[in-house]
Design goal:
- The complex is a heterodimer of chains A (77) and B (251).
- In chain A, strands 1, 2, 3, 4 and 5 form a 5-stranded antiparallel β-sheet that branches.
- Chain A has a domain of 50 residues: N-terminal domain of TfIIb, CATH 2.20.25.10.
- Chain A has 1 helix and 5 strands, in the order αβββββ.
- With 77 residues, chain A is mainly beta.
- In chain A, 8% of the residues lie in helices and 22% in strands.
- In chain A, a hairpin with a 4-residue loop joins strand 2 and strand 3.
- Chain B has a single domain, classed as Vaccinia Virus protein VP39 (Rossmann fold), CATH 3.40.50.150.
- Chain B has a 7-stranded mixed β-sheet with strand order 5-4-3-6-7-9-8, with helices on both faces.
- In chain B, 48% of the residues are buried.
- Classes of the chains: A mainly beta (77), B alpha/beta (251).
- At the A-B interface, strand 4 of A face helix 1, helix 5 and strand 5 of B.
Chain lengths: 77, 251
């Protein structure tokens, strides 16, 4: 936040930066599924964290894991 | 997530289905993210900084401490914590709103403390974190927005190590009736207008004011923390009770 009060513009213009962030390996191993509290499997290609128990794939957006059920992709078994 | 679809909760003074609250709160914060700190300054006349420092004072961070800061989007508490431990600590910042985390992370990019911070989008009621893994859990002006506060407290208890500390900074109830009337009139008349003027968003700030009034008072909230299993639960009023700090220990 630099400088107060520029004229209003829509707040959601978080400038899409190039994808320069990589998720930390240590963090990947630490996180658990919020539903099952079980371990997650990292899919580097799709940038997802997979919970086999919950059949969900949690997305990683530019290095930030999004650990919300509503945002997860449902997996066929 | 919700097992009982007809249960309702509060969205400010409106009663909404539980399943809708998270989305509506999310909408509020997505719409204010980039001006969030500015609005906090305006709403509290800058005092929220003093309150956050009071939280850190009471936490008394030690070097090597591992902190989970929930609803800590833009990193306000996390940065203060790392300053106090001279960078010798680790913080997980967890927030429902991705744009807040992006904002927070951008503030430390390229700085030395960058590696001491993890940024995670997550839900306070279902933390994606292993049990007994943190020395401290803080939440500042966030628990009021959680759909089921009890669930969030239970999750805090779960992820804390034995000996871990739970600290909540939240707006509270001014005990003095006359002061309360003055404060109410300020918040209901002034704050939504400020929201309009600064953020171009009256409704979000109307919601903030209403949700503050809905939140349990100091004693009620303390008993909720005790009910989750925390011990030595106590609180301190800040600015005559406009805000309060609650503390509990997992023994």
């Amino acid at each position: 936040m630099n400088g107060p009060m520029e004229p209003t513009e829509p707040a959601e213009t978080v400038a899409p930066r190039p994808d320069t962030h990589h998720i930390d390996r240590r963090l990947l191993e630490f996180l658990v599924c919020p539903v099952t509290r079980g371990a997650l499997v990292y899919d580097a290609e799709r940038q997802e964290l997979i919970s086999k128990g919950a059949h969900l794939a949690y997305p990683i957006h530019n290095g930030i894991p999004v650990m919300l059920v509503d945002e997860a992709r449902k997996l066929e078994d | 997530m919700s097992d009982a679809p007809d249960r309702t909760t509060h969205f400010g003074f409106e009663t909404v289905p539980e399943s809708e609250k998270a989305g509506r709160v999310h909408g509020v914060f997505t719409s204010v993210a980039s001006r969030y700190d500015l609005m906090n300054d305006a709403m509290s006349l800058g005092v929220h900084r003093v309150w956050k420092d009071a939280l850190l004072d009471w936490l008394a961070p030690r070097r090597g401490m591992k902190l989970l800061d929930v609803a800590g989007g833009t990193g306000d508490i996390a940065f203060r914590f790392l300053e106090r431990v001279k960078g010798e600590g680790q913080v997980t910042v967890l927030d429902m709103t991705e744009s807040m985390l992006v904002e927070g992370r951008a503030r430390v990019e390229g700085r030395e403390i960058e590696g001491k911070l993890d940024w995670i989008v997550g839900d306070a009621m279902a933390l994606p974190l292993p049990s007994a893994s943190y020395d401290a859990y803080t939440i500042s002006f966030g628990i009021r927005n959680v759909t089921r506060i009890e669930d969030a407290i239970a999750e805090a208890y779960r992820v804390l190590r034995p000996g871990g500390r739970f600290l909540v900074l939240e707006f509270s109830r001014v005990p003095n009736a006359m002061l309360r009337r003055i404060y109410d009139s300020y918040s209901f008349n002034v704050i939504p207008r400020m929201g309009q003027a600064i953020a171009g968003d009256r409704d979000s700030y109307q919601y903030l004011v209403e949700s503050i009034r809905r939140f349990p008072d100091q004693e009620t909230f303390a008993s909720m923390i005790r009910a989750a299993g925390f011990e030595q639960v106590s609180y301190r009023n800040l600015s005559m009770g406009i805000a309060a700090l609650h503390s509990g220990w997992k023994i």
